[in-house]
Design brief:
The protein has 340 residues and is an alpha/beta fold. It has a single domain, classed as LarA, N-terminal domain (Rossmann fold), CATH 3.40.50.11440. It is 26% helix and 18% strand. The protein has nine helices and eleven strands. It is globular.
Length: 340
Amino acid sequence: MADDQGENPANRREMLLQLLRLGGAGAVAGGAGLWLAGRSRKPEEPAAAIVRHNFSVPADPARPDMAVAQGENHGELVRAAVSALGGIRRFVSPRDVVVLKPNAAWDRTPEQAANTSPEVVAEMVKLCWEAGAAKVIVADVTINEPRRSFARSGIGEAARAQGAQVVLPGERRFRDVELGGEVLASWPVFEPFLAADKMINLPAAKHHSLTGASLGIKNWYGILGGPRHRLHQRIHESLADLADFMRPTLTVLDAWRVLLRNGPGGGNLEDVVLRKTVIASSDPVALDAWAAQAYWNLDAEKLPYLAMAAARGLGSARFEDKRIEWVPSIQLLDSAKPRP
């Protein structure tokens, strides 16, 4: 573990960005481990009674805030990143009902990188069973037709093969819920996201035509029904509202393939780059901030929802201040090491 006393925050920030931009196995080398410190009508009463939005687990000062895994086996990266944060049993307890929220919005193949990779979903289902979960549910409110999206993305088959229940959105499966946000007041929410013990967010790292990037917090759009396109008029405020309403147990960002342009739906393989990276964090704001800066050069000024979420106490947009562990462990070159 490196002693971070006296580190220059600007140098540390740039170093982190460069490491994440490299991606893949080429970004890591054997060496000592590195830590960097771094309104509408009222909802029906039954719906309000079952709403639970804070699924987070207690902070552990002995563990990193974020883990970055890079390598050649997609599923193993998920397992390694979660292990670095303390292991799945830190986040999932025996008899928990766990909901996994991938991005399954688009009728696209995994190679087009518009959705979460099926390997990420499959491995997370496995981990939840290993922790003793009573039920594992995989759900998303898709943009394209749900059956086609879950089928072509590979997410449906991958989840079912590991014993998870795939729940597709239907008109009768939404409840009006008071979200209590600045923009989001009463809104229909897909039922699986209202009655769980633990909530694990599995977003894909991709471009978005309105915000510039679609990452963990943007993935919560997929819990909503109704005319959610109207939220685009105040998209940053609505994202901050969603981050406040849905506080996940864990976020695992799939950056194996990154859709750099023409998102969120993509389609052109020329817009996709291979990064072979999975990032797990208990701080959804820091995770979004780092990935947005590294892949699209977007900071809190260009992504106001980050600052809004941080102001609500939902995390920190200063990812350089977070404790980060890399898997495999890396050793900085002398020229990149912080100076006393």
